[in-house]
Structures are given as structure tokens and as C-alpha cells.
Amino acid sequence: MLTKILKLLPGGDCSGYGGCGHGSCQACAEAIAEGASVALCPACNQETVDAIAKVTERASVEVEEKIAFIACAGNAAGKERLVNCASCREAVAGGFVRGECKDGCVGIGDCVKVCQFGAMSAEDGNIIIDRDKCNGCGACANAGVCPQTIIRMIPREATNFIPCSNSSDDDDAVRELCRYGCIGCGDCVRACPEGAVDIIDNHAVIDYSKCVGCEACTVKCKKKIIVDTYHDLTKLKDKVAFVRCNGSKCKEAYQAAGCATCAEAAKLDGKTLGICTTGCTGLGDCTRICRYGAIEVVNGSAYVDPDKCVGCKDCTYVCPMNLITIVPYKGAKMVPCSSTADYEEKAAVCDSACIACGDCQANCPNGAIYMEEAHAVVDPEICENCNVCEYMCARGVIHEREVPEYNYKQRIALGLEEGE
């Protein structure tokens, strides 16, 4: 019987770290033969467990197949400094410096070394798991392998994933460390109809025994980091980014001054360069940080494609000119200008700047427009898209931002009624 059981086990011995708790397949087979569960080896699927049960003449048990999942998006700060370490344990033991993520994957690949089934590989410091090859043995998730303890065994049929193990309660610090960092806001917890999400140690965790695979958590995630393999994330949002600049002449001037990034340009005095002091630099820091390709520089200014934008706010944090804001994902009028200069100064540097004449404000039937620091602002929550302001604007500054209606999947997931 022992020989038959051993032949049914996957082999490889899981480097002694497997979930069965034994140092080898031989030891695991002996334990099963002596009365341990026929499903003692977590790498066995239902068919194999049934076969072991038949060999031992015992009742079979239902198996929930699992695979490994790394609760880190792979962008954890600090990897470049640690790349020459001999092991993950050595890297972690050496400590982290300010500005590095102390909770993320260090990318050395100790887990890759112990995987006996070729299911894990390291690519440019990121650990990749091949779902088809992973049999759920659990060796990589052993605390003796991953010093960060961020590899979890989850149901193979799971569709929602939160790739973050951050423990910091400082939102700004998390955003600086990693674009995929969970800020522990709890929106996903409140949105989940099954109570399957909780905040543990300042990051969201999914209880897969309760998760039914709906998209509520994905929809409500502020950072848009919750991966949903069933649905198109780019169409599940309630807000998108908007750039408050209509196209400035700043880019060439900043480049001539030797600037390569928006952050560098923001340190210069635009007035001495003869350009708008508050306009978009056009150097694309926001385009580089956007994970969804939703921002591009058009006519010297950043432009957001609302169909691609998921409202994650990463671009708002990276813009040194504070030009990017988050607005409702619906058709509305917008004023792409944030200049605080007087009329003469604006006219000298930009032919599409708002001059704060007040015509739009005076004629808006809903009171949706107000003046703020020498430029008009449209409140998208009040705007009914009636076109009066666009007609009244002598400079043609006010634009209509046309976007689709809320996606029907989003309404179903959140239980929204029409009009909400």
C-alpha cells in the first residue's frame, strides 16, 4: 500500500517545506498509510485524493485546490539596492532604509529555488507564478522560505486579488513607496456584500471562504489595485482624472531650460521664461506614472482619456503643479485652466486661458459655476450639461467632457438604481 500511495503523490519532496508537514514524499506517504488524511498532501487534486482513498480503503474527502499568490505587486521600493544579496533572508536581515517598502517582495527568489515544479520564476526582480504549473504544494509559502511571509495559498478558482502587504498607516508614504500600495481606506470592506474583505495590519485582505467573486471591491478601490480577472477594470469606476490646463506653451521653454521632468520644471520661475506660471509643463511625469495608458501630452499639455482612466489618483500625487483633479465619471462641462494671473498676463502667455470675465457664472441656470483665484470652476455635481456656459464663453475655454454612462456591471455590483 505504501508503494502505491507514494506513486500517486506528485514527487519532488517540496524541498521539505511543503504543506503536508513532512520532510519528504516518502514520509508523507507513510503518514497517510498509518491513518493520516488521504488529502494530507496539498498538491494532490481531487482525482488523486480519490485514488489514495481507494488504495487505503478509506472514505475520500473533498479537496479545494489552491495555488500560490504573492501579496505584492512587485514594485516594492528598495529592490534595486538589494539585488546583489545572496538570498531574500539576507536582504531582509540587512534592514531597509528610508523610502523603501519593508513589507514587499525583495525579489531575490528564495521561493523560486524551493519550487520543485517549475511554477515560479524571477524576471527583472519580480516573481512570476505560472498558474498552470503550480500544484499548491505550499513550499514557497513556508515561513522558512519567504522571510516577508507574503506568499499565500488561495483557492485556484479565486478571481479577486489584493497584491499588497503594506503595514504603514501613512497614506502619503505608501503612495510614494509603491503605486500599487494599499492605503487601508476600507472602501472595499464597506462595499463587499459578503463581508469577505477586512483591513488587517493596515492593508486589505480577502477571506476567500466568503468571497463570491463579485466586482464590488474592485469598483470601490480608491487606488484601483484590486485585481479582478473576470472583468475589465478600466471600465469600472465612478470618477476619473481631469487636467486643469488647455494646452500651454510651457513645454518647449522648460526643455530649453534643461528640464527633463515636471518636478524639475516646477522649481523654475515661469515668469522669467515668459510662460504661464501655473500651466502644465508638458514633460509627462503623469504619463509615466499612469499604469493604464490613460494620459498623454497633447498640444503641450497632459490630457486624460476618461475611457482608460480608472480614477486611481496616482497622477494627482505626481503633478507638481497640482493641475490634476478627480471629477465624476459623467458628461459635464469643465474649465481646463487654473491660472491665477491677471488678464493682461494671461493674454500674453496663453490664448486659451480663462480670464475670469464671469459671463459663464452669471448665465449658469443652476449656479454650478464659481470663480476661484481668477479662473472659473464648474461644479460637476451640479452641472446639468446645458451648454449655456460653453455658448457664453468668449474665449472658447469651456469644454464638454463626453464620457459614457456608468457601466452596467458597476451598477449591478454595487446595487445602484438608475440615476444614482
Describe it.
By secondary structure, this protein is α+β, with helices and mostly antiparallel strands. It folds into four domains: 2-56, Orthogonal Bundle (3-methyladenine DNA Glycosylase II, Chain A, domain 3); 66-234, 2-Layer Sandwich (Alpha-Beta Plaits); 235-329, Alpha-Beta Plaits, CATH 3.30.70; 331-402, 2-Layer Sandwich (Alpha-Beta Plaits). The protein is 25% helix and 15% strand. It is built from 17 helices and 16 strands. The strands form eight sheets. A two-stranded antiparallel sheet has the order 1-4. Helix 1 crosses helix 2.
CATH C-level label of the largest domain: Alpha Beta
Distance between the termini: 64 Å
Strand order of the largest sheet: 1-4
Strand content: 5-15%
Percent range for helical residues? Answer: 10-25%
The CATH architecture of the largest domain is 2-Layer Sandwich
Average pLDDT for all residues = 87
Strand count: 16
Low-pLDDT ranges: none
Question: Helix/strand/pairing class, anyone?
Answer: alpha+beta
What would you say about this model in short?
The chain is of the alpha+beta class and 420 residues long. It contains 17 helices and 16 strands.
